[in-house]
Every structure is written in structure tokens, then in C-alpha cells.
Write a structure and sequence with these properties.
Helix content: 25-40%
Number of domains: 1
Largest sheet: 8 strands, mixed
Order of helices and strands: EEEHEHEHEHEEEHHEH
Number of helices: 7
Strand content: 15-25%
CATH topology: Spore Coat Polysaccharide Biosynthesis Protein SpsA, Chain A
Structural class: alpha/beta
Distance between the termini: 32 Å
CATH class: Alpha Beta
CATH superfamily: Spore Coat Polysaccharide Biosynthesis Protein SpsA, Chain A
CATH architecture: Alpha-Beta Complex
Length: 202
């Protein structure tokens, strides 16, 4: 089974307000990301939260997924959120009805509502065909999200210490990455500033 970790623990300093809660069409930003993964067929999803915890919890509890709070979110390190998500996959039981443990997980960003369902499906299809340990989408030679990492690498990610980052991990294993070329820049887009939001919002 392929799980997904959605990193949604940032403080939204540059946005000036909790960006995961901003409207995105008829949903919020975080809901759009969640529904994209669900519609792509991902049954086991872990959302890692940080700031605006109560509001986030109220939204997330409406969906069939697991919610993990990163107590170190104020440090602003993506690594700690990724590690929280991996620990949840390893140590916390699956939702009822999901039998097998995940052998791979997608790493997605909670502030990336632009990501398309077809991109998520494509990465999963490539994994099922070739079982590569690291699969990263690429647009015009630039890495994007979500990327996939198999269980064989999880312990190594858990052992990383700041200032190491997930990017450092990927750079270490560049020769083992299977790149999937996509035809959309949405794998690169995220929402950091009010300008980003106004430019891309539906």
C-alpha cells in the first residue's frame, strides 16, 4: 500500500495568516490537498499539523485520515514534520479497514492546492511498475511534490538532524532517484505569500 504524508505544520509567517485555512474554491487550501490525494486513490493519509491547531483539527476530522501534531512546528523545520509523519506510519495503527502496512509514502505539501490528481496517480503508477525506492516528479528539470519514498529509507530520514533537510536527503541519493517528467508546473507551485495566493486561487 502507498500512504501519503501531507506536511501542514508551517506558521504561515510570510502569508500573515494561516494559509491552510484560506478559501480555495468551495474548500479550504488544506481540504483541496486532502481531496486531491483521496480522489487519486490514496486510502491512508497522515496530515501533520502545527499552527492554528484547533481550526485545523475541526477541518481534518471530517476526512478519513490520521492527524498528527508536530510539537516542534514553531522551529519552522520541514524535517521535523516529515519525521512526525513517518513515525505515525511506523508506530500508529492504520485506520480500521486498512489491512496492510504502507511500503511507500508520498510526501505532499499542505500549501500546494495546485497539485493535480493525475500527477499523484502517475507517481503511484510508476512505483507499482518498477518499485523504485525514490520517485520524484520533475518539471523542466526541477524537482517537485509529491515525491515518493519507500520504507527502506524511512529510518535514514528519521536519523537526520537539523540543519539537514529533506532536500539534503534527496541530494545524497540523487543517483537512485527515478524521475517522472510531468507536463505541469503545479508540482512546483506553493503558497508562501499573499501574492502567490491571489495569483493562483480559483
Amino acid at each position: 500500500m502507498i500512504s501519503a504524508i501531507i506536511l501542514a505544520a508551517g506558521e504561515s509567517r510570510r502569508m500573515g495568516q494561516p494559509k491552510m485555512l484560506l478559501p480555495w474554491g468551495t474548500l479550504t487550501v488544506i481540504e483541496k490537498v486532502i481531496t486531491t490525494f483521496i480522489n487519486a486513490g490514496i486510502e491512508d493519509i497522515v496530515v501533520v499539523t502545527g499552527g492554528a491547531r484547533e481550526q485545523m483539527d475541526r477541518i481534518i476530522e471530517q476526512y478519513p485520515l490520521r492527524n498528527v501534531h508536530n510539537r516542534d512546528y514553531a522551529a519552522g523545520e520541514m524535517l521535523s514534520s516529515l519525521q512526525c509523519g513517518l513515525r505515525a506510519l511506523i508506530h500508529r495503527p492504520l485506520r480500521p479497514g486498512l489491512g496492510e502496512e504502507a511500503q511507500a509514502t508520498l510526501i505532499g505539501l499542505g500549501d500546494q492546492p495546485q497539485v493535480q490528481e493525475r500527477s499523484v496517480r502517475l507517481i503511484c503508477e510508476v512505483y507499482r511498475k518498477n518499485q523504485a525506492g525514490l520517485i520524484v516528479p520533475s518539471f523542466q528539470m526541477r524537482r517537485g511534490h509529491p515525491w515518493l519514498v519507500t520504507r527502506s529509507f524511512w529510518d535514514e530520514i528519521l536519523e537526520l538532524k537539523p540543519p539537514q533537510t529533506p532536500r539534503d536527503f534527496l541530494n545524497t541519493y540523487t543517483s537512485q532517484i527515478h524521475y517522472v517528467n510531468v507536463d505541469t508546473p503545479t508540482i512546483l507551485a506553493d503558497l508562501d505569500t499573499p501574492e502567490d495566493y491571489e495569483k493562483d486561487r480559483p
